[in-house]
Each structure stands twice: as structure tokens, then as C-alpha cells.
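Quick entry between incubations.
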Amino acid sequence: MRVTRVLAVSRRELRRSAAGRGGWGLLFFALALMLPAAALRLPGSTRPAVPAVSGEAPAALVGAVQLRPEAPTRLSPGPPVQVRTRALAPGLRAALEGTEARPAVQVRLLPGTLRLPGRALLVALLAISMLTGPLAETLPGEREAGTLEVLLSTSLSRGELVLGKWLAWTLAASAVALFAGVSGVLTGTTALGPWLLAMPAALGVAVALGLWLVRGAGDLVGGAAAPMRVLPLAAVGSVGLSLGLATAGGQPLLAAAVPLGGTLATASGLLPGAGPLVVAISASLAASLGLCAAVARTLDRQGVRPRQRGGGPWGPLLAGAFGWWLAVAGPGVFAVGGAHELLASPAVSVAAGGLLLALVAAVALARGPLPVLTRPVGLWRGVMVGVLLAASTEGLGAVAGPAWAEPLRARLDLALTPGAVGLLPALVVGLGQGLFFRGLLQRRLGLVGAALAQVLVLMPFDPLRGLLIALSLGILQARAGLGVALVAHLCLALLAGSLPVSGPPWLGLGIGLLAVGAAGLTRSRAGPSAQ
Amino acid sequence: MSRSLRVARPALRAVLWGTGATVLRLLREGMVVRAVVWPGLLAAVAVVGAAAVAGQVGGALTEAPWVAMSVDDAALAGPALAAQGLALRLDPSPQEAVAAGRAERAAWREADRWVVAARGEGVSTLRTEAALRELVGADWRLEVPADPPRAQAVATQSGRMGTLVAVLFALYGVVMGAGLAWRDRGEGVVEGTLVLPVPAWTHGAARVLGLALTLGVGLGATLLLLDGILGMDRVGGLVLHGVLATAVASALGLAAVGGPDARRRGFSAPLSRALGATAALLGLGAALPAVGAWLPVASLPVASLPVASQAATAPLAAAVALLLGLGLMAGCALRWGRHHGGLGT
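Done. Structure below.
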């Protein structure tokens, strides 16, 4: 590793970027965005020197508070003086304590208390978001232009190449961020502090992570998409982890060692002290070098465009099942934990589950060969099978789950009668289930496979009835086409649970078998839409 | 009227088919599908996972806030704290408990006064102080209003989470709009479509509408999923302003890379410019809601504000933002047509 070569790569990188008007435009816009964010004082962001209260101030507080009718803190002169508030401003507390001859209660806030991030965190996050374009130009841009092969065939080592690119963008981003930060110091929005040292370290990790994310991208667009998707979430998530370790865990040094998050937290003044600063900078340097080494190792691998996929059934099946359970049964987790009041409206959950099934089916179908659509004929057969299935609502050998899972089961059961929660959710669920199980899975897994999948996803606690429903609908599609099967799905979703049929389990079984028979006796239609 | 309709019909048909084709192309891109799925999946799994862990590990979802106290002090202050809805946990050394992180807050007597120590100046700490001031008959007393219903508080927070998700979608819109323009020019798709006997602006309009439709449906499904799990404040307004912001951001990305002399300008500088403009609008809405409510993209952060803090002109402002947004999208489509998708000057 030779330093001169690393510096040469950095110089080339910055020159390449600054060539033409584009590079200067980027610098101009970065400054135009970050300078106001760092230096402007926002209305309401500064605490008034004299606290505002509403109500009537006692004589002892005249001059120490300003009366404003809209202020959320309300004073009653008493005696005793009553303060009605959900947050006591420090200025008002000091004024009130000044009226006491002998303080009766003292409040001590301990170190480790959650502090609000300073403006420097906003500047750092903006600088990270501005890196999306330059990061796309680094390796993917070279790859698209065909210059990466030329660079790799020179005597430069992979490490020197990656390190040079990392250094160029770390320095550029740090210069802009520090310029913005110092302007904030000058206007008084930010205090001078050790964050000045932590900022370049934080941006260094962000650049290294960005290089790692784009290491395999074949072109600029792929190179821009990955950092856009991951970098903001990684930054915010790692800051959250670091703060969690610092406040809940009481481990400021461990918090500072969290890559990216620890340095960002230090840069924004959330982890004060020299110890966290040293740990954060060291951890960032180590993480940056490790990521750069990982990028260098994979540099010879040429990125290729994502291969068009979509033929397999398992990915969509898992995606649809997970989406359905998450939307429909997910809220039941709050009830398992005892927080019944947090259960969201079942209508919204059920509609969300149906919409997710429809979208998974639409995406999977769009990614494979498109289905041939024909005009559905004999829709009444779909109505007949749907009504029969809706009438077979009695449980047929339902399986008892564990007691703790009862709220989850209740949510899943509720989704079996979507008509009871609303017309729109029922329509969305009928359409979503029809498109997913009949339009997508039956084409890829066959009739029996799709029926089994439907039982597992929708009715795992009532498998026999689920199988009767799924087989009826599957047979109907095989005989009469997707359109008729969709009508049956819609009728089932709208009417299930609302038909006045009740009786012993054998009656439900009988009606279910009748539905299977009705679907099977449907006249088969020729043509490609049968499947 | 009928003549102008006759002239416009092929153009509208071209926009319609072009929009469908754009949606299909986007859905076939793994990058796009991953981007659309990622925020909702991450947020939903995080919420449900956190609830499951908290519910299993000790009933944190239902636990009342508590104060650590010694036995003697608890006998004195117990009823006053209970009246404030606070529970007690006995600890021989409450001072050490709060210092070591075993307790969030603690109270003890020190000489002739009470001390409340806490790791956060929250409402529960204020209630502890209020109870003790009442107990000793202090010169000034605190009254802490009751908490809003927990479901309402959670819905407010999930509304903020939904706003963040919508912001991410708006930023995706910029990248995907710019990416679509860049790839289409690089692969010769723009030349291919320009030979068609329809106005050039229809290609831009189809791309903008395709992006808006794909990302808008993805955003709508994501917000509906979060609303179905947690309940969300003002989800309708969030969907409306989120989809508008995403559509306008997509148009900005497309126009940035599809402008005059586009090939000479490269990809990253125009992209960063469009990202910067979108972020600036979002920041404007967050910092100055009274101004942001009237502008597309900037109206997104305003949409999640509580109803009480919305101005009386909010519906009018939303209509103006919508019209301006549609105007911006139309302007971007016309710019695409005027510069032939970046091939012209």
C-alpha cells in the first residue's frame, strides 16, 4: 500500500466528479441544503428566556413568567400555588423554587438521561443522503463506463483503489459538513465541541458502507438504489441502537463502539466525554478499513443485471403467507401481551392482508409470463359454489391451538368471515385470495398444491373445512376458468358467516361436499384459460 | 371540441399503454420491488416483533410506571404515589438502584426533604414529584393532566412512523425516476420510442404516471399494513400527501436526468440535485408547516400533524398542493418531450 497512489486515486476521483458543470452543481446544492439546515434558527426552536404560562401568576412570580393564554402550563395563585402541566420548563422550576423558603422536594436528573440530538446529527444525515449520487459514480460508474477494467489492469492494488475512492468522498463530505457545522457555530445554533472530530469519522463509515453496498452493482442506477435504500435506515437504526445501549443499558463506551451509530451519536453530542469520543473514532476507523478491505476483495466480481425470475412458486407463497399473517394475526400479538386496547380495527387488518395477497400475486405474475385472459362465461356457477361454501361454516374437526395463541387464532378466524367486518374488506379479501391462490399458485403448484397452501395459510386451525373450500375453488377454476373462480371467492368472502345455516358438523361436511360436487360437475371449457 | 378530442385521443392512448408498460418494467426490476417492500416489512416486523418480545418478557406492555423506595419511605408515601397511578418497588437502597440502572426513578428522604432521582424527565417523574409535594404540603404543587388513551398515543406515534416511510418513498421516487431516464437513454429505449407517431411528451408522462402508480400503490399498501397493525392517525391524509409527494419526486428525478445536455451532465450531479430539492421541500414542510401545507412534497410532513394544530385552511391548502403537484408533473413530462428525453439540447 503506497500513500501516493491512494492520494492519486483520490485526486482523480474528485477531478472526475468536478469535470463539467455537474460537479460544481453538486457542491452548490449540497451547501444550499446543508447551510440553512445547520445555521438557520427555526421559529420555536429556542426556549424563551422568560417561561410562558397561562392562568394567573402569583405575586412572587410577577416578572419571572410571561402570561400567554395559549401556553400549555397553567398557574393558579393559591395558596398553595398550583401548576398544571405535563412538562415543567427549567426556567419556571427555578422561579418556583425561588419562592420556597425551604425546598420540600428536590428533583435530580442523572447522567444517562436521554438527551435530544443536536443540529449536527441533522447535518450528518443530510451529508449521508447527499452521498447517494457520488457513491453510484464510484465503482458502478467506472464499471458502466468500462474504466474499471483499465484501472484494475494497472499496477494499482485493489486496496489502493478502494481506499483512494473512500478517502476522496470522506474528505469531500466532511469538508461540506464541517463547513455547514461551523456556520452553525457562528450563528449560535450549535456549540463548538468534540463533535467536530467525530463528524469526519461518522462520514467515513458511511462512505465505506456505501462502497460496500455498491460493490457488485453493474450500473449507475443499481449503484444509486442500494445506498438510497439502506444508508438512511442504517444510520437511524444504528443511532437508535447506540442510544439504547447508552440510556437503557448505561454503557456509553459500548454505545460509542457501535459502527456508524456510535460515531453519529458522538457527533451530535449525545455521548459526551473524551472516552466515548476516542472509542467512537477508533471503532469507526476499524469499521471503515474493514469494509474497504471487504470491497477490495470482491472488486473483480463484475456486477450483472438482476436475472428476471418469477417462475418459482415458493418465493411468492412465502411472501404472501408472511404478509397475510403479519397483517391479520400480527395485531393479536398485542393481545397476547395483555394490551387489548391496542388491537387495531379488524376491518383495516383484513383489508391490508387481502391487498398484500393481491399485490404479491400481481408482482409475481408480472415477473413471469403474463396470463392469457379470456371472457368468463357462466358466472352463475361461481355464485352457486361460493354460496354453498359460505353455508358450510360449521367447524369440521377444528384443531385446538395453545392457549397463548388464542388471540392470534381469533384474528385469523375473523378473517374467514370478512363480510362481517365490512363490504370493502370482503371485496379486497375475496379478490386477493382469488388472485393469489387461483391466479398464481394454482398455475405454479397445481390444484392440490394450491389447495394445501390455502389451508396452511388461511385455515391452519380448521384444516378439513379449509381443504373442502380450497378443493372446490380449485376444481372450479380448473373446469370453468379464473374468472368464475374469482366470482366464487368473492361470494364466499361476502357471505361467509352471514347465511343462517347451523347444525351438527356433518351438515357442514355435507354442504362442503355438495360444493365440491357442484364445482366438479361444472362443464369443462376448452382453451388456455382453464388453468 | 370533438376535433381536439380526436387529436388528443392517440396521445392519451399512448400515455395509457406507456404507463402500463412502465409499471410492468418496474415490477420486473428486483431493485424496485425490494425498495417498495423494504420499509413496510421492516417497520411491521419491528413493531410486531417488539410487541411479542415485550409481551413475553415480563408484561412490559401492561406494566404501570413504578418508583423504587425503601420500606420505611414506602409506608409514608405509598398512598400518595398510588393516587397518581404509580406503583412501588421496594429496594433497600433506591439511590443505588437508580444510579445502577435497575430503576427508572427512585425517591427517598434526605434530611428534611424528599429527593426524586430519575433517568428521564418524563410525565411519571413529574407525577412522583406531584405526589410527594402533596404529601409534605409544599408551597407549590403540581397537577399533571391525565394521559391521553394509550391507543391514541400509539396512533400518533405510528402516524409519525408512517410519515417517515412516506418520506423514504418520495426519495425512492427521485432515484427511480432518474434511474429510469438514465437506463432508457443508455439502452436506446428513448430513441426507439421517439420514432412512434405520438407527441414526445407522452413518453415522459407515461414514465411519470407509471412510477407514481407503482410507488403509490406500494406506499398505500405499506401504510394500510401499519394502520392494520397499530392503528394510525390521519392515515387518509398521509396516503394522499404521500402519494402526491412520491409522484412529484419521481417527476423531479426524471426531469433532472432527462433535461438538456443530459449526457454531458452525467448521473450523480442531477440526481443529487433532485434529491436535494426534494429534501429541501420536505424540510420546509417540517420547519414551516404554515407554508409547507400549500406546496407539493412539503405538504407531506404537515399531513401527520395533529388535527388540532392544522389551520382552518387545510383543505384549501391540500387542494392547492395537489394542483401544483399535478402542474409540476405535467411540466416535467413536457420538459422530457422538449428535450427528447435528454437526447436533445
